[in-house]
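User: Could you go from structure to sequence for me? I need the amino acid at each position, not a summary. Structure tokens:
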């Protein structure tokens, strides 16, 4: 049932995420590498994901200027 979500996806295992920037659609990893994404599916608990988001995104969301999560 999940296969359609994974088709054409680039899945990175054993990579520690240090930053997620939704405005630039980039993810930075602990080894310094950075990747761009079209869509991001995260298994990171929401509380930890908020810590990794670019500070301007979190501040903007708190001020009501942008949305962190799209449904």
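Assistant: Here is the amino acid at each position, in order:
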């Amino acid at each position: 049932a999940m296969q359609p979500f994974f088709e054409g996806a680039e899945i990175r295992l054993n990579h520690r995420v240090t930053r997620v920037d939704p405005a630039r659609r980039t993810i930075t990893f602990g080894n310094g590498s950075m990747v761009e994404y079209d869509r991001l599916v995260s298994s990171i608990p929401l509380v930890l994901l908020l810590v990794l988001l670019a500070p301007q995104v979190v501040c903007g969301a708190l001020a009501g200027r942008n949305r962190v999560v799209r449904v």
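One structural detail worth keeping in mind: Confidence is low (pLDDT under 50) at residues 67-71.
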